[in-house]
Amino acid sequence: MSATAEPLPKRHALTVPAEGPAVRTARETAQMVLAEWGVDARHPAVDLALLILSELVTNSVRHAADSSPMVTVVFAGGADCLAFGVHDRHPHVPPLRPPDATARRGTGLVTVTELTAGLGGTAVARPDDDGGGKTIWITLPL
Asked: Which of 52, 64, 68, 107 is an S-S bond match for 89, by CB 3.0 to 4.6 Å?
């Protein structure tokens, strides 16, 4: 993965209603975008990236739909990395931290952070400037 902070040259955005079908639409769009960008569907990061994406969109649909009727996914890519951000307008910015053995809820984001770290990537939660929403950004090496 590139060590520079240069913007990734490839971009695609998807905005969908925060409803159940959003998860499938996001996955299918990701598969289409990756194919257009020449990323081999058999690359070891692809299936896990789709799982991470699915979990993040599911979280937006389940937990943010009341205050955020739309979910936006931004895909970005470069020669050696893939990034995607899932944005909703719910103001809560969840912590992205290691698992808590006593937790009964919130294990989806634990899975996201573990999978991302296992692939050598990063996961960051960024609040909107107005504090009224957030984006969870995932960056993975290819």
From this structure: 68
Interatomic CA distance for residues 134 and 142, integer angstroms: 25
Would you write out the chain's pLDDT as a tens digit for each of its 142 residues?
Answer: 444 567 899 999 999 999 999 999 999 999 999 999 999 999 999 999 999 999 999 999 999 999 999 999 999 999 899 999 999 999 999 888 765 555 555 578 888 999 999 999 999 999 999 999 999 999 999 9
Report pTM.
Answer: 0.90
Domains of the chain by start residue, with CATH: 10-141 (3.30.565.10)
